[in-house]
Amino acid sequence: MVKVVTDSTCDIPLEIARQLSITIVPLYIQIGAETYRDGVDLKPDRVYHELVHGQGLPKTSVPSPGDFVTVYNNLAAETDEIISIHLSLGYSGTHDVAKLAQSYIGGKCRVEVVDSNSVSVGLGLIVIAAARAAQEGKNLDQILDIIHQTVSRSRMFGKVDNFAYLFKGKRFRLTRGLILLGKISMALGIKLLGEVYDGGKIRSPMLLIGRTMALNRLRRWAESFPGVKEIAIAYSTVIDEAEMLAERLEPILSREHILITRLGCVTSTYVGPGTLVIALI
Questions:
Q1: 241-260 burial string, b = 16+ CB within 10 Å, else e?
Q2: What Å distances lie between residue 271 and 100, 120, 207, 275, CA to CA?
Q3: 110-115 and 81-86: which strand pairing?
Q4: Which of 11, 108, 178, 245 has the smallest CB count inside 10 Å?
Q5: Is the pTM of this model over 0.85?
Q6: pLDDT in tens, 183-231
Q7: Which domains does the chain have, with CATH numbers?
């Protein structure tokens, strides 16, 4: 059976990763003089405490080539086909590190490294689709086709309560117009929404006052795409907002196909408290 590998920015709940035999390679986060593995040694609550009360943003770094080589070698004892799906190059060099590790494996196992062109639950839905295909017995080339189809039709939208984290984090490609909107949202204390695409670009930005208007806007975005098969919602600090959004989306898709999860440590670092992300395929 094909084995599926991804990184910790996928924000897939650990129980789902276990059920689907997904191997997650953690990125690293530095807080002060200490370095932690995302989701292993560090949980999101600590990150949010540092964001609000710390002296500066935590720093993140990619896994080492050795981290990937170890994972690939361990899995090569069970399979001769591995697919490794990662966050977009627009956010991080993780994909390139995985490619480097791939070159060390040689001919003992075929390893394919894929740029998802996404992050968080956008990446997560792509990885889950690949893992389900693997469990159905599809081969590596068939799974690659499924991934490319899924990447092309996936969409991701988000709401941030504090634009400062996007601006300071420097992981999103912000235009001058978007920076101006973000500063207005900060000055007025209102929410900034938009579609995240192409590895960190943001389009269709808008300012909305209040939770209800923001959730309704996210619902309307989801409604505008026909044939949605899966939806994932990731929250930073307010799970009630995720549940409320899921209720609004049930006329579009049954609840069993709507996943709610929490943003992980790395993704949380760059979006801050009060953020809500929705991905659909």
A1: bbebbbebbeebbeeeebbb
A2: 29, 11, 16, 6
A3: parallel
A4: 108
A5: yes
A6: 888 778 888 899 999 988 888 989 998 999 999 999 999 999 999 999 9
A7: 3-27+62-153 (3.40.50.10170), 155-280 (3.30.1180.10)
